[in-house]
Amino acid sequence: MPTYEYLCERHGKRPVRFEVLRPMSESSLPAPCPECGLDSQRVMSPCTYKLNLNQMMGKLPAKEAPNDRGFHPEWDS
User: Fold this and answer.
1) What three-state secondary structure class fits 8?
2) Phi, psi for 7 (deg, rounded to 5)
């Protein structure tokens, strides 16, 4: 199941950002804020890292990864 990020702006200058693990079918539904319990809207979160398939499978260290596309060297032609 994917993790979705939510933001509750009802806390003045310190909005509460939190994550919820839920099925994709519920991705557009609001989630209750863990601090106040009111519904919060989902926000888009940036991707924090990028790995290619070879790195994820442990076949290549990150510094030796040939390209972003991982195991398809023929794409570089």
Assistant:
1) strand
2) -135, 125
Residue 76 in domain: no
Answer yes or no: is 77 within a domain: no
Count structural domains, the chain.
1
Range of the domain at 60: 3-71
Judge if pTM exceeds 0.85.
no
**Which tokens hold the place of 63?**
């510094």
Q: Is residue 45 part of a domain?
A: yes
pLDDT in tens, 11-20: 888 999 999 9
